[in-house]
Structure formats: structure tokens, C-alpha cells
Amino acid sequence: MLKSKMKWDFTYSSGHTDDDLIHELLRQRGIHTEEEQEKFLNPSLSELHDPFLINGMRKAVNRVKEAIHLGESILVFGDYDADGVSSTALMMECLTSMGANCDFYIPNRFTEGYGPNEQAFRLAHQQGYSIIITVDTGIAAVHEAEVARELGIDLIITDHHEIQKELPDAYTILHPKTSVQYPFHELAGVGVAFKFAHALQGEYPEHLLDLVALGTVADLVPLQEENRVLVTYGLEALSRTKRPGLQAMKKLNNIEGYVDEEAVGFMIGPRMNAVGRLQDASPAVDLLITEDQTEAEELAEFVQELNKERQKIVQDIAAEAESMLDASSEDEVIIVAKEGWNPGVLGIVASKLVRKFDRPAIVLAIDEEKQEAKGSARSIDAYDMFENCMQVRDLFLHFGGHAQAAGMTLSLENVDTLREELCRLAREKLSDDDYQQSLGVTMSLSLEEVTIKQIELINQLRPFGMANPKPYFHLKSKAKEVRLIGSKKNHLKFTLEDEGTRLDAIAFGQGEAYPLIAPQSPIEFVGQLSINEWNGMRKPQLMVEDLAVNKWQMFDIRGSKHLNKHFQKPADDIACVTFSEAVNDPDGLPVFSFMDEEVKGYPSLVVLDLPESLEQMKELLSSADVERLYMAYSLKEDAFMQTLPTRDHFKYFYGMLKKKGTFDLEKDAVLLSRHKGWRVESIKFICNVFFDLDFVTMKDGYLRVNEQPEQKDLTESRTFQKRQEQIEVEKTLYYSTYRELREWIETQMENTGSPVKEEIGHGL
């Protein structure tokens, strides 16, 4: 067996065809009526809501238009992540196209922290700005709104983050969640900025949709309703964008043709995020708004190098954090803190810890001078990080975020208290099952059902993302081939085959499962379907998320001289079994007799030698609860390959002995061997059989016929029986094919608890 890493949640209804596959997928998304299905499968810009349904929009539009008319200076105050950067670029382009006197400002993550701050506002006042428009930030800026009023600056907040207990007293706030009448509350920061731009310009600013797609996909907001419309059209706009910066980024990352949500989520978005994680994020905004091709290429190269640096920093901090958790990873909520960590990448590190330990995680960088800790949190599905942190809000100097992600600053003295309180809340609210990662299975498919047509039907649901996840499918098949791939040999590639249908399956980062998968084992996979296009060929493939083998497995390492290489270390679940005492056991593994009760406690057994009879092997199989069986024995004496003397051999020898009178086992056996071409061992075997049956007597090394023997059959000889048993053991357990041996063992396991059928022997 090989247990799955995650809990597979089978939620589909049984039975489907190609025709109703799409309807089943839509049903699982809560889409039932024909009208709902039409809107989902064919989103239209006409479905976008009136921006003036957002509270404060008319007031904000009037003030900005007044400022443009009067020539007042406007400052766009953004955030340093991909959503904030794209929001800033979008608002800058909108205002510039309207003739505004404007510039942008993004706080430095390391010197200023998240969101608006008093020092920046006072600097803006000194520089003559009379309006500050925040994008993707500001909903928690209560103090900064007071500072703006004091300075005579009109603060317009556009944001989408969770609303806290007190709203800032700003000039106006544009936030879907403060607007009961606005139909959709899950816009990204760039989505809110787009609505503001729409209201300012009086028409859909379609030329800004590429920026909307970038920020919305990167910020992991639900891709439903308005977001689905914006991203669908935004990805098309991104695919044909004329922005030199985005063109340069696409070229550097070999993104050609249609730019899908995966290219944004895994390539462009992380690179835009990398800038603000390591330094001032302004170059990322410059990259998006520049009209100069040379500058765009230089900025794209710069961003690319920063991303490589970010990846190395994340790898190093994650390794440190994991080493710190060896003794304390049993906490319900993981909190690790250390001086010197880069605060800009701690959210990524927290995500890695969540995946590894199946726990909510907070990763903090310590500032000894300020006696503060600043960092990021990521969570599991069952634990709302925002809600639980808000219950201990007094412990934070700054806090904000969502259910699954948050950012925070707190006094160093409060770190241990925060750990205690969040762990207490987790104990009160969560069960053990809540900590195991769950993998929703959309549908089970047979190998022959995985076709290009099927995958194209599934792709009608794109763009995939939050609240519209890419479907996971369950398949079961034997693998014709399993091999390790990749420069580090840490990925698995399967060639699945069933009744003439073949499918490639790739399991990235799951190479550790390779030695735990036996040939011809029925493997169950859960993964996502995609189309592999190479050299003009298109074929379906399965990208494996998790796998399992739910039946016992047999590993055929008969005759191997290097047993240790076949086992993973440490191997606490493996024990060796012997039918004798003279065996060489693999280093470090316990060895038991096949009759030992302790054998039952090990799911993996290594059979080190052959039994004396098949009955002994049957006894082992009936008494042990085996998940993995390693057949690791060799032959010492080869009975099967030796010819068993026939009745004619026995008849000739007996007649010869009666005629000769005596037989010297040492000298005469050699002479008879030369004369008849028999093996000396066969002659001695015949002698032992006759001795067992009292047909002969032995004295001083000479064999003589017993003149009045009792009539007996050859098969009554224990020597004869043992040779037959040995031949049958070798034939069944050693000279059998993998399939034959596995089927024999399977039969014995099925007969557990009932009388085992007698094996048919090869008699004379």
C-alpha cells in the first residue's frame, strides 16, 4: 500500500457522459439554470455593474474632475504587491489620459511598512498634493485619515481588504463591502480602481483590462461574477497587449500566444511581486506604464533578476524555519520568528510551512532595535486567520488581511502570547480532520475517457482560480512504466495503459514515492488534465496532485545482493522474516522468525530466505497484515533445476544392489555415475530414500539390501517428500514470474481464515 498525502473528498454524482460532463462541473459550482450557465460560459462586459452603485463614487468623481480642471496635484498611493502595482499603474494611466497633474507613491515595505503612513502624507503635503487616492490599500488607515484632514488633503480610499471595526474618516471611501447596494463584494484592488476609472471616464476603459487581469489573478480573489468577466476579457487583452513592459516580460519568460491565468499566476504575477518584496516597488509600476521599448526591456531584466534573488532567499529562510520547528511543530498554529529574515518574502515562507506541516503558520522577522516582530500569516481552509487574529487585535501594532492570508506587526513581548491565544482558539474550533489537507475530486474517469475532446470541454470553465478551481479527476490504472525524471530525479513520470489506451502522468516533487510503488500495482491518481503540445503533436496528460496504492504490493528483489538500496530510511515500518537462522539481514532492520507474534506489527515485511514448505509461507501470509512484501531470498541449493530420479532409476539401482550385494557410497557412487551418467547427488538421494523406507541398511559406509522389507511407496520417504516440497517451493516462489508469484500470494491472502487448499505435488 501507499497512503495518499491528502484526504480525497469525492463530491461528484455517479455516472456521466461527454454531453453532461460540463453540466456536472457547473452543478458543482452552484450553477443550475440555463441562464446561469450561459452567463458563466459566455461572460460579457455588459454584465459589469454600474460603478456609481459603489458608495461615494459620485463624490469621488466630482472631486477628481474638479482637481483636474483646477490643475491640482493628485498623488496615487499604492501597495507593493502585484495587485497594488497594477492598481497604481491603472489609476495613473486613467488620470494621465484625463489630463491630470499626477504622480504615484508606493511605501517601502522595509522602512515604512504596509499601507498609508503619516510621514508619507506630510511629505505629499509639502510637495503640494491636495488629493491622495489610495489603491488596494487604506481601509485600515484611521490615523492617516486624521492626518490628511489636518493637512487639508482630500483622501479618497479605494480598497478591497477586510473592513475592520472602525472606518477611516476620509473624504470618501470606495469599497464594495461598504456598499450594500453594490451586487458584488469580491473585487480585487485593481478591480475597484477599474470601477473608479470607468466612472471617471464615463465608459468601459477596455484599454486597462490587461492590468485588471494581472492584479486580479495575482491577488487570488474569487473568479466569479464580475471578476470572471474582467479576467476573461483581461487575459485576451493581455495576450495582445501593446504595453512595452508586459511585452518584454512575456518575451523573457517565453510566453507566446494566448496568455492564460496560469501564466499570470505562476510567471508574471510572482515577478511583479518580487520587486516590492526585496526593495521599493516603483520599478514594477514604471515597467507597466513606460512607453519606451528600451526602458521596458531594461526594467524587465531587472525584475527577472530580482525574482531569482527572491527565490533563493525564500529557499534559505524556509530551510531555517523548518529546522526551528523540529521540536515545536505540534503547535496548532505555527509561529516562527528570527532576526535578519527578509519581511518581504515571509508570506511565501508561511505558505510553504502550511503545506509541509498542515497547520496555520505565521512567520515573523524580529527587529531587536524596535523590539518588534513583523511578518505574514497563511492558513488552512478550516482556520480563518483574519477572524481569529481580530479576536486578539490588541496584541498587534498593525494588522490586516483575509481569511487565508494576513500581515501584521507586534511587539516582541507579545509573540509568545499570540502563539498561546491562536493555539487556544484552534483547539476550541478545530478537529483533527481539519488539519489534514483536503483535495476535492470532481469526477472519476477511466483511462479511455481522458481525451482531447474531454479536456477542451473542461477548459470552457476557464479562467480557473479561487472559487472556480481547476477540476481534479480520479483515475485508477496500472503503470506500464514508472521512472524518475528531472535533474534532481525528484519527479515521477508514469505511462499508464489499459486495453490499448495510454496516458502519461507527471507527479512533480513526488519522487520519494518511487521505491514504494511495485510493478503492476493498481495505482489511484488525483490530478488535473491538460494537453501536452510538442512538435506539432497534441495528447492528453495528467498532472498528478496526489496518488495512492490501496492494495498490498509485492516487490520482487529475488536474488538481489544489495537489499538496503531497496528500502527508504528511516524504515521503522519494515521488518525482516526468516524461516531459518542462518541469514544475512539488511543492516539496521529487525529480524524475526516467521512464527514470531511481533511480525504482525509491521506493515512491510522482507522475506530473507525460502521456507522449507509452502505451508510455512501460507502460515506467514495468514498471520501478518501486510501492506508491502519484499521477496528478497536467494537459492543456496537448487533442487528445482536438479533432475528428480524416476521410478526406473530407483528400480535399476535396487536391482543392481541386490545383484552386487554391497555398495560403497564413496567409491561405487562415482563409478555408477560414470557408467550411467547420473549425478552423484542423485545416487545418494536414491540411497537415502531407500534407507528411509528400510529397503536397505547401512554399515561401515556400505549399503546392503534388507532381505525382507515391508512394501512401501517411494512417496512415504521423508527424504523424497522433502525433495518434492523443496522443488515445489522453488518452482512457486523462486522460478515463477512476477505475475505468477503475486497471484499465488494473492490467493493465499484471500484464503486467510479458511482452510488452505493443498498444493498439487509432482509425484513419480
UniProtKB/TrEMBL annotation:
Similarity comment: Belongs to the RecJ family.
UniProt KW keywords: Coiled coil, Exonuclease, Hydrolase, Nuclease
Domain DDH as annotated: residue spans: 73-216
Origin: domain of life: Bacteria
Span of domain RecJ OB: 443-546
Domain DHHA1 intervals: 333-426
Domain spans labelled Single-stranded-DNA-specific exonuclease RecJ C-terminal: 553-745
UniProt entry tagged with the keyword Hydrolase: yes
InterPro entries, per database record: DDH_dom (IPR001667), DHH_sf (IPR038763), DHHA1_dom (IPR003156), RecJ (IPR004610), RecJ_C (IPR018779), RecJ_OB (IPR041122), SSDNA_exonuclease_RecJ (IPR051673)
Entry's Gene Ontology molecular function annotations: 5'-3' exonuclease activity; nucleic acid binding
UniProt feature coiled coil, ranges: 289-323
Source organism (scientific name): Salimicrobium halophilum
UniProt-listed PANTHER family: SINGLE-STRANDED-DNA-SPECIFIC EXONUCLEASE RECJ
Gene Ontology biological-process entries: DNA recombination; DNA repair
Protein name as it appears in the record: Single-stranded-DNA-specific exonuclease RecJ
